[in-house]
Design a protein that fits this description.
Chains A, B: It comes from Thermodesulfobacterium commune. Chains A, B: InterPro entries: PsdUridine_synth_cat_dom_sf, PsdUridine_synth_TruA, PsdUridine_synth_TruA_a/b_dom, PsdUridine_synth_TruA_C, TruA/RsuA/RluB/E/F_N. Chains A, B: This is tRNA pseudouridine synthase A. Chains A, B: One of its GO terms (biological process) is tRNA pseudouridine synthesis. 2 copies of one chain form a homodimer. By secondary structure, chain A is of the alpha+beta class. Chain A folds into 2 domains: about 5-110 and about 255-260, Alpha-Beta Plaits; about 110-245, 2-Layer Sandwich (Alpha-Beta Plaits), CATH 3.30.70. Chain A has helices spanning about 30-45, 75-85, 140-150, 205-215, 220-230, and strands at about 5-15, 50, 60-70, 90-100, 110-120, 135, 155, 170-180, 190-195, 245-250, 255-260. In chain A, strands 1, 2, 3, 4, 5, 6, 7, 8, 9, 10 and 11 form an 11-stranded mixed beta sheet that branches. In chain A, helix 3 crosses helix 4 (about 205-215). The longest helix of chain A has 13 residues, at about 30-45. Chain A is globular. Chain A starts with 6 loop residues before the first strand and ends in a 9-residue tail after the last strand. Chains A and B meet through strand 4 of A and strand 4 of B.
Chain lengths: ~270, ~270
Amino acid sequence: MAEVNIRNIRLFIAYDGTNYLGWQIQPKGPTVQGVIQEVLSKILGHKVTLKASGRTDAGVHALHQVAHFLTTSDRPLEIIFKALNSLLPKDISVWKVEEVDFKFHAQKHAYKKTYVYQIYNYPIKNPLLRLYSWWVPEPLDLEAMKSCLPLIIGEKDFASFRKAGTEVKTTVRTIYQATLERSLENSNMIVFTIEGRGFMRYMVRNLVGALVEVGKGRLTVEDFENILNAKDRKVAPPPAPPQGLILKKVEYLDVKVLESYPPFEVKI
Amino acid sequence: MAEVNIRNIRLFIAYDGTNYLGWQIQPKGPTVQGVIQEVLSKILGHKVTLKASGRTDAGVHALHQVAHFLTTSDRPLEIIFKALNSLLPKDISVWKVEEVDFKFHAQKHAYKKTYVYQIYNYPIKNPLLRLYSWWVPEPLDLEAMKSCLPLIIGEKDFASFRKAGTEVKTTVRTIYQATLERSLENSNMIVFTIEGRGFMRYMVRNLVGALVEVGKGRLTVEDFENILNAKDRKVAPPPAPPQGLILKKVEYLDVKVLESYPPFEVKI
């Protein structure tokens, strides 16, 4: 009997979430996972199941999502790479394809994720930025918002910022860094960047929702601290809308890469 | 008989051209002019005809289009401004409304227009930039492209860069400035900026189409000069696609503004 070689393939993916019901496959409508799996199955001739670093919700974007899948196909990586990008729709790109150690797992081995949230803070909406930012017309006190950031750094219980009605094993998460800066090219765009070991669903959007309330002067920095300490979702403001959120990076500890392309770096 | 006061109102408009057949009203489908006229007619209670600084073609964007219209309505500008922005779709904004001298004409009195053309130059397409740039995967020689720019500055005959099959009185146009730079925030984005007294249809896109051929090494700077000097549309390469083009500014010589709002500055 011929030996069947099973390969573990890792994809680096960028997508515009506007027209999808999020990453995770579901019967109600198009998802990023569903579209890529369908194309991969066509290319490889067998059913493919993708495992991503984590789901992104409906309308959320990604410049650097990572997913892996197993295949018995011996098609060269370059062919898979080219076929994927010629068959995928315009709002999904795969910018790197590589073979990794059999043990690599896109979700379990991710040790750091970086999200960006864009707030367009200007009295008039900008039609060209509407799909990739939250339009907040009221003036925001950026310094007050920045004063909240040290409170969320480190290992904290983010129970107040989880998605209402969801069950999780623990609401404790570790945040490595969080910054809030005006964009270099457009001072009306405020960019919130957060790096952490992992995030709960809606956590970044719930944090931004509360930070913007501080920026508007409706909450003080002390109120923000009290919300965090209350460990109760019901005391926090509603989440920021999805279109401002972009998964910017997923990082892994040393992984044996068996074959590789020149790395492409995709930027916003 | 009561005296009827006719007012001349000037609008500053930003729009995402993705979903429109261009500025100018036409029966085949939605246009920016058509949508704004319909909303204005509803607000003012009479048929409104907008006159813009110039048309933009299907898929082309604007951050600073200027248009004017006459009205017999005495509704305050602030009411018109607020009603417009609450009734317009998300991809059109009016960021300033003001009453101007009766003689002001948005097209005839424009003395300077600035267009930006964005080229995303990277081996892999970026889904988040696809609607506002031309994806060119091949490497571009930026220095060679820049060497062409002095050739188009000044009063020149741009017959080679007009839209094929269109009739114009003269193909001579005056270009004040043209630059080509990498974006500060994303070095893969090349931004072409051109300022001129006026432009023919497709002229900017035809210039960019030829510049990119120089960047790819398929044309030399001398070839570009020969194309310009040939004054013949048939010798020039095809136009760059519409989604990279943005009308960035329209400027007027002194105009008597009768009432004004605090100026908003909309940036890309």
